[in-house]
Amino acid sequence: MSSASDHDVLVGMGFPADKVLLAHPGDLDEPAEGETLGGEPSGKPAEASSSKEDDGEIQDGEQTAQSLMCDECQKLFRDASAAERHATKTGHVQFSESTTAIKPLTEEEKAEKLAELKQRLAEKRELRLLQEKEEEKNREKIRRKTGKELTDAREKLEEREMQKALLAKKKEKEEERLAKAKIKEQIEADKKERAAKREAAKQANLQHRQEEEAAEAARVAQASKEYTEARLQIRRPDGQPITHTFQSTDTLQVVYDHVTPHIIGPFQLATTFPRRIFGNSEMGKTLKELGLVPSAVLVAIS
């Protein structure tokens, strides 16, 4: 039951409307000025004068309104304030005056109604406390659920961030490994290239020394002995070298004519060390005059 209906109960018990304050039930004991509790106003005569007091009969139409009645639910109300509260609570709007007087409550009935009202108020307070506790439990459940969801979301986010960090670290390590492998390959390639260059230089120096030794031996032999033959090795631009023994008195033209069928295109003859290219002016000179006796290595230059 709402506070408005409790108010109606108290008013129905005879308490004055301006004294019915549920927050201050002690005020209910004091009647309004000019009224008696559950009775008529104090200033009203005890006996109403009437022109027909002798027989107590009234004519039709002389009835006076004793209350207000709701035409929709047939409930009686002491005054317009009570009817207005009923209309607000129920939505009923059809009211009419009634000649039926609302019987005043006895003191026992008033006490019983008041005790019942207090009981209902206590039950309402207890119910409100239970509802508030239940609502607090529900709010606590919602807070816990929300907190758990936030915690789960935070943990998932941290897990994703950790996975990202691990993947980034793994990628960084892989890139570092590839970079180190590439550097190592480059170092190995540089080592091989330097070794190949050293080997090539070594072979070139060895060949150079051999040629120097051969030339020196030829000069020594020529100085100590008179040779009549010259053994020449002619290196072609491609293919195997040509080796042939000529007379020391043969000219360079004889050597050129001997080599020409084995080489495609024009060419010139030259010594390897010291470097000397023979031109047309040397074609008529003998091999002895050119210092090619007893042996020499010539190169055919295209």
UniProtKB/TrEMBL annotation:
UniProt subcellular location: Cytoplasm
Listed Basic and acidic residues bias regions: 127-139, 147-156
Source organism superkingdom: Eukaryota
Domain UBX: 225-300
One GO process term, biological-process aspect: negative regulation of proteasomal ubiquitin-dependent protein catabolic process
SUPFAM superfamilies: Ubiquitin-like
Keyword set, alphabetical order: Cytoplasm
Listed GO MF terms: K48-linked polyubiquitin modification-dependent protein binding
Pfam families, sorted: UBX, zf-C2H2_OTU1_C
SMART domains to which the protein is assigned, alphabetical: UBX
GO CC aspect terms: cytoplasm; nucleus
Gene3D superfamilies to which the protein is assigned, alphabetical: Phosphatidylinositol 3-kinase Catalytic Subunit, Chain A, domain 1
Biased composition (Polar residues): 91-101
Region Disordered, residue ranges: 21-67, 83-107, 127-156, 194-215
Span of the signal peptide: none
Annotated protein name in UniProt: 8911_t:CDS:1
